[in-house]
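Person: At home tonight, work slowly through the protein below, taking as long as you need, and write a paragraph about the fold.
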Amino acid sequence: MSTTTLTIRVDERIKQKLDKLAKSTARSKSYLVTNAIEDFLSVNEWQIRETRKTLQKANQPGAQFIDHKKVTSWLDSWGSKNEQEPPYNLSFQACHI
C-alpha cells in the first residue's frame, strides 16, 4: 500500500488527546489518525450506500409507506400501559423520506 502525506488543522485539545492516546497505546499518531479516518469513511460510505438502496426501493412502483405520525405514536407508546400495536404494513421495508 502506498501512502501520501495529508496535512490537517485540529484544535489543540484534540492534538493533546491524540498525543496522549498515541503514548498510552504505543502507536504512532499517524496510525491512530489513519484508523480513525478509515472507520469514518467506512461508516459514511455504508450510510450513503444504504440510503441510495432504500431510495431506489421507495421509488419503485407500488412502494408502500407507513404514515410517520402513526409510527411516532406507536414508538412513543412503548413501555407504557397503553402500548399500541405496530402500524399496519410495518413489516414492509419501506421508508418515508
Q: What stands out?
A: The first helix runs from residue 12 to 25.
